[in-house]
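User: Predict the structure for this protein chain, please.
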Amino acid sequence: MKRPTAARVALFTESVIREMTRLCHDHDAVNLAQGFPDFEAPAALLQAAAKALRDGWNQYAITWGSPRLRQAIAAKASRELGLAIDPERHVTVTCGATEAMMATLLAVVDPGDEVVLFEPFYENYGPDALLSGARVRYVRLDLTDPVVPFDPAELRAAFGPRTRAIIVNTPHNPTGKVFTREELELIAALCREHDVLAVTDEVYEHILYDGARHVSLAALDGMAERTVVVNSMSKTYSVTGWRVGWTLCANPAITDGIRRAHDFLTVGAAAPLQEAGAVALAFPRSYYDELGRAYQRKRDIMLGMLRDAGFRCVVPRGAYYVMADIGGLSADDDVTFTTAMIATVGVGAVPGSSFYHDPAAGRRLIRFAFPKKDETLAEVRRRLGRLAPARRA
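Assistant: Here is the predicted structure, written as structure tokens:
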């Protein structure tokens, strides 16, 4: 055999998050690496899924999504963005936000184009851009500042004649940053000036803290037709295993391209879960308010126990992760520290280097996920207490 794999898959490594999950399983550690809840999804949603199965929604849905779900997505987005969203021309249902992002980049990026990406970044974005043939231009977020800002001059310098798209994740994984309206207005102005498409990952849009407000780039002047909003059911409705996501774009030509890529990537998302999703998207405002309150409480518990254990934390204003500096606990790099913590303390996290294109930039950082039951968080607190003697030494 001349070569076992294609050159394109040599451009990136296996998911570090999934690798940490396997290590947690091997050592019976509490998995705070992969971002999934260990509590039940809303009862009404589970009942709707069971009913859809019994009612016969068990064959292919329309490739770009069940009409009922697309109508629900369009109705919710229209209310929240103040835009006229057409479920027939603007919405594509995918197998999770992961496929939505990949289908979007395949649809709009040609080899040699450039994609702007804030770092640290969710680990899928880099491989997605590379698989589409793009060159990535990175803009660093400053984790030493509580606002986690970026340098406007650095962002402007990242835009050029070959820039095709910018990926914006707000609320942000892994830092919990919520991009301000002023920051998004600058991004929008650059997109308009350079004729660039914005791809926004908004899966944590309802998980917000300390009065933070989510603003979608699509809702800003002149951005509806040059923004692809990526979203999913996973985080808002606690069903990460369902893999039901979508793209939203007011430009029918872009939607058509996404649908073509999606069709040959996965054909379509699970039909009964799409029917159940339509029920979830009609939940009242009170559901989302309570979701934010519940996660803020978990965030505060997580921050308290990490600080007590000796970590220095970036305080998230959204999403459900905490980035923590290990400098007060160890001189080890992030990978060594995290694998040892899994094996000896029994708590899993993600090495921060996996969120940077230059691993050295994240070697003192690790990421914890906190979408967990109170009992789980209490057990994490007990286990992290084992770190204290090492810190005193």
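The mean pLDDT is 95.
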